[in-house]
């Protein structure tokens, strides 16, 4: 998945199959290493929060993000449906 995202961000570049394999390999390695060594939250590591509380906060963040996206989409949709003629 990380390789597809990396190749997609360079969509305007001409990548050969070998270049695509290298980009995918490097993106995959960076993704795995980042998950392994950079995904520990400081409060969880220090014992201030437990993992279930951190998971609940992340689930709430996803809900808030989806709510903002839906609300923004509805507002833009209603604005675009207004009968304004230029």
UniProtKB/TrEMBL annotation:
Annotated Gene3D superfamilies: Ammonium transporter AmtB like domains (1.10.3430.10)
Q: Where, per UniProt, does this protein localize? A: Membrane
Pfam families assigned to the protein according to its UniProt record, in alphabetical order: Ammonium_transp
Q: Report TM segments.
A: 18-39, 59-80
InterPro entries linked: Ammonium/urea_transptr, NH4_transpt_AmtB-like_dom
Q: Where is the Ammonium transporter AmtB-like domain?
A: 1-39
Look up and give the membrane topology term: Multi-pass membrane protein
Q: What are the alphabetically sorted keywords of the record?
A: Membrane, Transmembrane, Transmembrane helix
Q: Which PANTHER family match?
A: AMMONIUM TRANSPORTER, AMMONIUM TRANSPORTER RH TYPE B
Q: What protein does this entry describe?
A: Ammonium transporter AmtB-like domain-containing protein
Where does this protein come from, organism-wise?
A: Goodea atripinnis
Taxonomic lineage of the native organism:
Eukaryota, Metazoa, Chordata, Craniata, Vertebrata
């Amino acid at each position: 998945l990380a390789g597809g995202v990396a190749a997609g961000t360079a969509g305007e570049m001409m990548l050969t199959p070998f270049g695509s394999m290298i980009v995918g390999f490097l993106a995959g390695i960076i993704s795995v290493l980042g998950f392994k060594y950079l995904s520990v939250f400081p409060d969880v590591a220090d014992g201030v929060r437990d993992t279930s509380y951190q998971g609940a906060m992340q689930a709430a963040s996803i809900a808030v993000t989806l709510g903002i996206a839906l609300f923004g989409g509805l507002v833009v949709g209603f604005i675009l449906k207004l009968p304004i003629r230029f």
